[in-house]
């Protein structure tokens, strides 16, 4: 297992700064995900850890030893690529065995470890198949087995599920998480898929423009986003703009006509001026009173529906409907919305930083 420390890392491409100044620590045995939109620097950072990209400044340490100048072949890492990168002329078993053969492992030990690796990803029955005879999900399982079989100190995974269909992605993320837990290997995982990141990770670093916006557990990042970018990127949210009202030592916000909420216990008392409010869909439900709204549309998803409604300010609020009404909401239908204040998150209207009490930095 490997503790990874990244200190003051900087990466440039032809004079353009991709990562300006990055600091992170990844714990022994942790499943750590780099999450963000395309171009945020997550794959660049992964390749720096792997030794595939140069480092303009800063240090990367494994277990307290700086490895900046150590070539990728000497970093004892297992790598799972987006495109599988299997040898097409080799069977699944031979692909998995390749790394052990280059390390001069004995034949009996190779056979034992290959069998165990294929079994761990439920591919033992297809060891004699060529990649061209396997589905995308099966190829990805073989790629994972190949990375694990060498018993690396560190497992790196770059968008490993992006080429799979929705059902296979769910199945494979469970396989990856279980295999990582069984092996106990420190893992750094790159994805742009928020649901995938929350499903597999111990902790997540949300990145944007080469800067880490927030690090935390999936629950911490979802429930207590450090800024507006994180709130919008992790899951769905409705953003409302309002002015805070300071009255008799209390902090109030008017969500709608005659719908005034006391948020003194939520926001920093010194906050003045315009704020933005993140309202998760699950924080809203249809009620007998509350925010007056008019239904825009409803999307039926089986277990629930997503309903969009326009409130009197013209803002659209999406909420979830679990009641399995006999008929769907119709456009133009009037509804009142009840908002759970405890699930709201407030951000500074200018900087976008959280103004919640005890907000993450």
What structural keywords apply?
alpha+beta; 5-stranded antiparallel beta sheet; 361 residues; 35% strand; 20 strands; 8 helices; 6-stranded mixed beta sheet
Task: Describe the overall structure.
The chain has 361 residues and is of the alpha+beta class. The protein is 24% helix and 35% strand. It contains eight helices and 20 strands. It has helices at 42-50, 92-102, 107-120, 136-149, 166-183, 194-200, 218-223, 228-233; strands at 4-13, 16-26, 31-35, 57-62, 65-66, 77-80, 154-158, 186-191, 203-208, 211-216, 238-247, 250-256, 259-262, 274-279, 284-287, 291-300, 305-311, 316-321, 334-339, 345-348. The strands form four sheets. The chain has a six-stranded mixed sheet, with helices on both faces. A five-stranded antiparallel sheet has the order 13-12-11-14-20. It has a five-stranded antiparallel sheet with strand order 15-19-16-17-18, with no helix packed on it. Strand 16 and strand 17 form a beta hairpin. Helix 2 (92-102) runs parallel beside helix 4 (136-149), helix 3 packs across helix 4 (136-149) and helix 4 (136-149) packs parallel to helix 5. The longest helix has 18 residues, at 166-183. The two termini are 28 Å apart. The mean pLDDT is 93.
């Amino acid at each position: 297992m490997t503790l990874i420390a990244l200190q003051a890392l900087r990466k440039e491409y032809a004079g353009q700064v991709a990562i300006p100044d990055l600091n992170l620590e990844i714990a022994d045995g942790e499943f750590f995900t780099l999450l963000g939109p395309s171009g945020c620097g997550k794959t660049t950072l992964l390749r720096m850890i792997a030794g595939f990209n140069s480092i303009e400044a800063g240090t990367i340490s494994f277990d307290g030893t700086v490895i900046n100048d150590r070539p990728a072949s000497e970093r004892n890492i297992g790598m799972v690529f987006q495109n599988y990168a299997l040898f097409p002329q080799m069977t699944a078993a031979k692909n998995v065995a390749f790394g052990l053969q280059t390390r001069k492992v004995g034949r009996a030990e190779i056979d034992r470890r290959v069998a165990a690796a294929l079994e761990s990803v439920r591919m033992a029955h297809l060891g004699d198949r060529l990649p061209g005879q396997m589905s995308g999900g099966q190829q990805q399982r073989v790629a994972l087995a190949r990375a694990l079989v060498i018993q690396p100190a560190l497992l790196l995974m770059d968008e490993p599920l992006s080429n799979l269909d929705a059902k296979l992605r769910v199945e494979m993320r469970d396989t990856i998480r279980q295999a990582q837990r069984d092996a106990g290997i420190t893992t750094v995982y790159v994805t742009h898929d928020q649901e995938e990141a929350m499903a597999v990770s111990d902790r997540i670093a949300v990145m944007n423009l080469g800067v880490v916006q927030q690090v935390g557990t999936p629950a911490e990042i979802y429930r207590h986003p450090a800024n507006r970018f994180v709130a919008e990127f992790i899951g769905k949210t409705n953003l409302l703009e309002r002015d805070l009202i300071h009255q008799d030592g209390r902090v109030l916000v008017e969500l709608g006509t005659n719908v005034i909420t006391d948020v003194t216990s939520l926001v920093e008392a010194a906050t003045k001026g315009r704020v933005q409010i993140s309202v998760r869909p699950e924080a809203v439900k249809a009620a007998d009173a509350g925010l007056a709204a008019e239904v825009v549309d409803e999307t039926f998803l089986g277990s629930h529906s997503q309903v969009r409604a326009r409130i009197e300010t013209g803002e659209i609020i999406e909420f979830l409907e679990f009641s399995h009404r006999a008929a769907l909401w119709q456009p133009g239908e009037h509804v009142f919305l009840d908002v759970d204040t405890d699930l709201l998150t407030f951000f500074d209207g200018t900087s976008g930083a959280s103004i919640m009490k005890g907000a993450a930095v």
